[in-house]
Design a protein that fits this description.
There is one protein chain. This protein has 65 residues and is mainly alpha-helical. The protein has one domain. It has 3 helices and 2 strands. The chain has a two-stranded antiparallel sheet with strand order 1-2. It comes from Nonomuraea jiangxiensis. This is C2H2-type domain-containing protein.
């Protein structure tokens, strides 16, 4: 992958992560969707999970090194 494409992908991923962390809850409440208080986001891929146990399992299965 070219340097520019990789850079764009990283910027996009960072923007999406920031949205999930800062704005998703406000957007959901504006649309009448109830959002649980325990929302976890994977810092490696940005996947959003509703339980800490699910996040730990995701990290173990998807990002095991």
């Amino acid at each position: 992958m070219s340097f520019a494409a990789d850079r764009c992908r990283r910027i996009w991923a960072r923007a999406m992560r920031a949205y999930h962390l800062a704005c998703a809850r406000d957007d959901a409440s504006a649309h009448g969707v109830a959002v649980p208080s325990g929302v976890w986001t994977c810092q490696r891929c940005g996947r959003v999970l509703l339980e800490l146990g699910a996040l730990r399992e995701h990290l173990r299965l998807e990002h095991a090194a």
